[in-house]
């Protein structure tokens, strides 16, 4: 918790806000500020942890959304290729049948 900087704390005895960096005791009532400083450091650290968890959750959700989009793009690509292949195959077969009939007529012996 040493990475948390405390500016002011509220004295638990008199309710005065005191500069925590300069005082270990309240200059107004003489009460100890150690518990108030510890509570404020804990409160700030918990807020920091909650924010980090929120950021991690947002990053995870964004990654999951990106992964989902990539899967859908892959499915669309595969489906498009399959549809394109089916259409190309059907056109190829139709053209082949057409040419076969046309060639049969071309090579028939004329009587």
Could you characterize what this model shows?
The protein is mainly alpha-helical. The protein has one domain. The protein has one helix at 34-107; strands spanning 8-10, 17-19. Strands 1-2 form a two-stranded antiparallel ribbon. The relative contact order is 0.07. The model has no long low-confidence stretch (mean pLDDT 81).
Query: What are the secondary-structure elements, in order, as H or E?
Result: EEH
**Into which percent range does the helicity of residues fall?**
55-70%
For the biggest sheet, the summary is: 2 strands, antiparallel
User: β content, as a range?
Assistant: 5-15%
Shape: rod-shaped
Helix count from the secondary structure assignment: 1
Total domain modules: 1
Distance between the termini: 105 Å
Jot down its keywords.
111 residues, mainly alpha, two-stranded antiparallel sheet, 2 strands, 67% helix, 5% strand, rod-shaped
Fold blueprint:
Elements: E1 8-10, E2 17-19, H1 34-107
Antiparallel strand pairs: 1-2
């Amino acid at each position: 918790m040493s990475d948390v900087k405390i500016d002011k704390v509220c004295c638990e005895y008199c309710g005065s806000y005191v500069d925590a960096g300069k005082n270990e005791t309240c200059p107004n009532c003489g009460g100890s500020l150690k518990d108030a400083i510890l509570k404020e450091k804990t409160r700030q650290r918990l807020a920091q942890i909650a924010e980090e968890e929120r950021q991690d959750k947002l990053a995870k959700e964004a990654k999951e959304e990106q992964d989902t989009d990539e899967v859908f793009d892959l499915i669309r690509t595969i489906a498009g290729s399959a549809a394109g292949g089916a259409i190309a195959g059907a056109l190829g077969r139709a053209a082949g049948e057409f040419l076969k009939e046309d060639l049969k007529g071309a090579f028939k012996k004329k009587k």
